[in-house]
Amino acid sequence: MRKPLIAGNWKMHKTLVEARELVGGIVEGVGKLDARGGVEVLICTPYTLLFPIAKAVAKTPVMFGAQNVHEESQGAFTGEVSVAMLKDTGCTHVIVGHSERRHVFGEKNDRLAKKVRAVVEAGLTAIYCVGETLDEREAGRTREVIESQMGEVIGPDVPADRLVVAYEPVWAIGTGKTASPEQAQEVHEWIRASLAGTYDRATADRVRILYGGSVKPGNAADLLSLPDVDGALVGGACLVASDFIAIISAAVATVPA
Ligand code: PEP
């Protein structure tokens, strides 16, 4: 049984004052949910907020993480942040290979492979994102793209218990378009098959695969009830505490009593 994970990606949003208000609403909302310990909640904030967020979520079930990391441990990399620096904040998770990192900042699989290893070797959990563009989907290349994003980055040396995969079709991120439940389930099955090839079936069955791409309170229940969807990576809707809590509630409803 995989425990659902609902992760919020704050992207480049929220000043300190705004962040305190949002995290306060999330902590309060999570506290009121009958989560039965069955759902994990994570917020991935800008670097500047990691230390204050650490304080705000201390002694609550809400976990926090970063949205990116540099692959080297230190050096002349102006503007970058190392995994040891992230560890200093007490964060537990790092998003790697978000579509904005791939498509706006030009990060390729070979670099992402190094980033995933930097994260897991430091004992943190990598949330590794994969997903096809609209052109790739329309050209019938979705499976090939997903398999290369998986195969070129995830190897048996990556401990499966420190890995979460997020399927985020690029055409669904921030667009209001969502993959249909059939499209999401199909790609999640391909990802799990890829994991089974890398590890083995039992290990692949333990790795959580999140769906991301315009997840909202109104569509969360349908997506989260799919057999291979183990949670969500949420962008826009995680910036409004009540929407994020509604998505977490939808995940709680999938957990057997
Ligand atoms: C994301 O940023 O990972 C994301 C899925 O964004 P949105 O939910 O806004 O589509």
Estimated share of beta-strand residues: 15-25%
Number of domains: 1
CATH-level-2 architecture: Alpha-Beta Barrel
The span between the termini is 13 Å
Number of E-type strands? 8
Helix and strand pattern: EHEHEHEHHEHHEHHEHEH
User: Do you know the CATH topology?
Assistant: TIM Barrel
Mean pLDDT: 96
* Ligand species: phosphoenolpyruvate
Radius of gyration: 17 Å
> Biggest sheet, open or closed, and with what strands and sense?
8 strands, parallel, barrel
- Percent of residues in helices comes to 40-55%
> What's the CATH class label?
Alpha Beta
Give the helices and strands, then pairings.
Blueprint (H helix, E strand, L loop, with lengths): L4 E5 L6 H17 L7 E5 L5 H8 L4 E5 L16 H7 L3 E4 L2 H5 L5 H13 L3 E6 L3 H5 L3 H10 L11 E5 L13 H18 L2 H4 L3 E5 L4 H8 L6 E4 L6 H12 L5
Parallel strand pairs: 1-2, 1-8, 2-3, 3-4, 4-5, 5-6, 6-7, 7-8
Helix pairs in contact: 1-2, 1-11, 7-8, 10-11
The structure holds phosphoenolpyruvate.
